[in-house]
Amino acid sequence: MPRWALALPLLVVVAATATAVAMITSGGSAKTVSVAGGVARVGGTAPAFTSWDLTGNKVSLADFKGRPVLLTFWATWCTACQDELPALQRIRDRYQSTGFTILAVNYKETNNARMSQYLAGLHVNLEAVIDPEGAIATAYGVDIGLPINVLLDRKATVTQIIVGLVPSAALETAVGKVAGPTA
Q1: Is 124 found in the same domain as 43?
Q2: Which has more confidence, 134 or 15?
């Protein structure tokens, strides 16, 4: 039996492994969430981040420069989020004319179809951003207890961090302070 015939199975395994690593690396790196700028604190500049929405479009906090933003951290398993997200939709609709927006940052889930169905079932069409590894959440101090809302003014300064479910009137008052009067 020739020597090359003995080496053939090893070559097939090496080639298959290299192909698998290349597929995983190229697919994963294209959707990596990036975060810069330290940790969120009231009075400080919001950490910048880049991620993707549920349809695969790139989303950066910088895209909303000059606009007031509410980052709401949520998950499909969070029962308080289920109550809060429709209220946030109403607040966003009311203040949208001021430039106000809400980025719904999903906490550590990876099934985009499930997240989309969940939001549709609540009649919520906020811009949902994925955070599968929790990198954005970590920068904003989210590690337990959803929902968490982080309110940013037009200069991307963190004005308020709201932990847990609060009455929608309290959220709306906070948003009104940074968004200004509605049209």
Answers
A1: yes
A2: 134
